[in-house]
Amino acid sequence: MGELLSLITSGIASGSAFALLALGVVIIFRSTDTVNFAIGDTGSLAAYCALTAIAAGLPLLVAFPLAIVFAGLCGVATERLLIRPLGHGKQVLFVALVITIGFGLVLQAAMGAIWGHSPKPFPPLIAGWVSIAGVPVSLNKIAATLIALLAMAIVAWFFGYRPLGVAMRASAEDPFAAKLVGLDTRLIAALAWFLGCGLAAIAMLFLAAESALQPHLAHSPLFRAFAGVFLGGMTSMPGAVVGGFAIGVLDNIAGRYVSANFRDTIVFAVIVTVLFAKPAGFLGVMRKERV
Amino acid sequence: MIASGFARRLVRAAAITSAAAIILLVTGPLRLTGDYVAFLVAAIAYFSIVTLSVSMLAGFCGIWPIGHTAFTAIGAYLAVNLGGAGWPIEAVIPAAMIAAAIVGYVLGLSAGRFSVLYFGLLTLAISLAAFEIIGRWERFTGGENGIPVPPVKSLLAGRPIGIQDATVVCVLLAALVFLLIDWICQGPVGRRWLAVKSQRIAAMAVGFVPSRENALAFSFSAAMASLSGVGLAIAIGYLDPEGFSLNVGVTMLVSTVVGGAGSLVGALIGSAFIIGVPEIARGASDVAPFVFGATTVLTLLFLRKGVAPSLIDAFMRKRGARRIAMRPTDNRDGLAALVADVLPASGRALVVEGVEVSFGGVKALQGVSLSVPAGRAVGLMGPNGSGKTTMLNVLSGFVIPKSAKAVKLGDADLLSLSPSGRIGAGFGRTFQHAELFGELTIRDMLAIVARQGEAARRAAGKALTEPAVVAERLIAGLGLDDVAESFPGELPFGIQKVADIARALAGGAGAIALDEPFSGLDSEEAAKLRAILRELRAAGVTILIIDHAVDEIFDLAEDIYVLDFGCVIAHGTPAEIRNDPKVREAYFGAPETAEDAVHA
After folding, report:
1. For residue B518, which of A64, A137, B356, B433 sits 20 to 30 Å off, Cα-Cα?
2. What pLDDT digit, counting tens, does each position of B484-539 carry?
3. What is the pLDDT of residue B594?
4. Are the C-beta atoms of residues B108 and B217 closer than 8 Å to each other?
5. What angle do helix axes A60-78 and A39-55 make, rounded to 10 degrees?
6. Residue B286: predicted pLDDT
7. Strand partners, A136
8. Mutate which of B285, B300, B393, B436 to test chain A, going by most A C-beta atoms within 10 A?
């Protein structure tokens, strides 16, 4: 029982990173219909910049927020330069998706060329360990989970109560109507990309401190985040968060009780099964095709 | 037209065969190239197989698979294991194709039920899972250390084949795959895929089953991709799990995008790019992924269709668009004969009784009944949100009613039929925005839909069954001669709407529900459409018109139903409806009386 509890605890901790990435993916998807495969690499790039800034003597508490803002600005630039020129339409969905895959390759190659491929140690927010139910858990994990939860709460508050957040939700429901009532859809798109990539940067800073920073670090967590997104439904923000946490826990439990060698396979087998039973995900609304 | 389409496919097949023959001559007997170039040719050949498999899905189905590596792995590891067990290559090839096709069909069917976006996740999942399995299943794959490819027997060559035969084997496999894919995609099946790709809903309304078409395409693509694996195994001589990692899957996408989705030449260009760049940038490990990524982005931004199709477009730039106007159709006998020759089941009555539909708490239809007698035109009108569109969607099968006493066309119970099955019963519909298949010419669209109605026409003993001939008759009968070779996007809206009606007739619809046929038309176009609808009615087609254009409905329909808040509030002749106070209230918000007019 104690073991299961600790598996769940650490599953929730790693799930918080997946949930942040998943939330970022959904925010961006809702605003511009783009599945952003480069979101994790944008976060990794920000983490590398933070590492360089810290090496140059900047305190951690300054470098991290700067890195998050930097990732957000990268997101804004990506939307402005790569996505918006594509225009709108049904086929654009996949064109945009493939463009972000291409952009992700460019980012990874650039990071590899600038900082090298060997893993670089990354400073944790707080060093040290505590024991929960007799299982050691790093303070960094706890801090990161709390920060992730805080970020999610802020996002929830923003979308739930701030006029601009509500406007963004309205715009996601019906971009045309949003335009009609005078909402600036460009601003909304830029803000969504800023938020999405900023959240991804938080996730990557945490993940880098947990293991080490390297150009391909975003791969595996991003796929788990995608699994979470599909579990929760492509358009639901709460769904993405719940999905991300669920994947974290599932991943840990499967790795321990079924087989550590077939983690991806098990995680995705579960997802595919869920999709079979409930195509729209748990909380998402299936996007109805217009008749 | 069938003959010329067939001839075109033969010419393309001959071109593929000769290209392969030339490549084999140059690298083989003529000895014009060294071993290094011959190896590059082999690599480009096997990579072009999987590129074309991906490209075909992207170009003809709108599905972008991210992890086709799973299927190349099936081919490669079967070649190693079956080849090692003494199977000849001639048996390994069909075995790989069958295994991959089965896996592909099952997966395709599961993703095809949803949207094409799910294919993205699913292929990603398959590829990750396959990579993990390859890394662990040591008996079959050698695990992470990889496995050498044993010499594989060949019945044709009469000796074991190995790396020295790589170029011949890979080029032959590529030729086979290019021939098969081109033959399928340039024929009726490919047209069907394009129809489903551009308009899933409209495709269902004319009898296609999108999920099945997606699964079929995915399965076929998987089978072809497995041959890339067989080629790879022979050419490389050693299988390393890294060859099936997600990174490789991504390069397949890059190759497709750069060359151009759906293009044969594009698959070759893309593969040469993927194989060539790392060769040129030897020693600098980050260069190739950087170039791949940057080229993908730039291609999509500036040459959306990819290199090959963009070049072809540039060379064969079409002449400026002609001004196209609608042709009058003044051949009443012509349309009557057309209907008699083409429609297997005209003259059936449409009967709807007690249909209830609710969305959540909203009752969209509350016990609605209406009937359209055989060969008559009936109007269905009502303000926005009154339930007109819901009624149409119940008829088309896109909305399942909560309860219904009857929804029948003649003797056929429409409710028991799937959306795509209803065209077989003789029910067709048009769309408010026409929703034509954007990537097919009007003629191709009609021919491919006419193929759906072929069996019914034959069973009904109709004079015309051959799809191309049916299409030709519809084109002539509805005055579409000038636009037969045009794509819908090039046509004025009025012509698109006529083509939409032609499409329903091509499918064999003897009863048609028209969704706002007059919206968006100018008065000239509306007049011509009115003439066509009159003639169709006179020819015995059962018509239900759903429209806002009150005057048009009054003009065409003998009998009119008015819906409001999901209930029939009035039913009668145009004259009765015109003077019905309840209808006035529903449309104008208040009963319009002489007194109101004075105050206004």
Report:
1. B356
2. 889 998 888 889 999 999 999 998 888 999 999 888 888 888 888 888 888 888 88
3. 43
4. yes
5. 150
6. 84
7. A131
8. B300
- C-alpha R_g of chain A: 19
Measured from the Cβ of residue A214, the count of other Cβ atoms closer than 10 Å reads 21
Q: How far apart are CA B193 and CA B284, in angstroms?
A: 42
Percent of chain B with pLDDT over 90: 39
DSSP B262-327: T-HHHHHHHHHHHHHHHHHTTT-TTHHHHHHHHHHHHHHHH-TT-HHHHHHHHHTPPPPPPP--PP
Lowest-confidence range among A2-6, B295-299, B559-563?
A2-6
DSSP B591: -
Please give the Cα distance from A254 to A270 (Å, whole number): 10
CA distances from B175 to A189, B15, B84, B182 (A): 46, 10, 25, 10
CB atoms within 10 A of CB B30: 10
Do B378 and B560 touch, CB atoms closer than 8 A?
yes
Best of B54, B122, B128, B138 to disrupt the A interface by mutation (most A CBs within 10 Å)? B128
| Interface touch B125/A268, C-beta < 8 Å | yes
Q: Which residue of B has its CA nearest to A104?
A: B293
Q: Which helix (H) or strand (E) holds B82?
A: helix B69-84
Tokens of A208: 């880098």
* pLDDT value at residue A289: 35
Among B286, B290, B300, beta carbon nearest to A98: B300
The partner residues of B159 in beta bridges, in order of sequence, read B154
Average pLDDT of span B158-173: 89
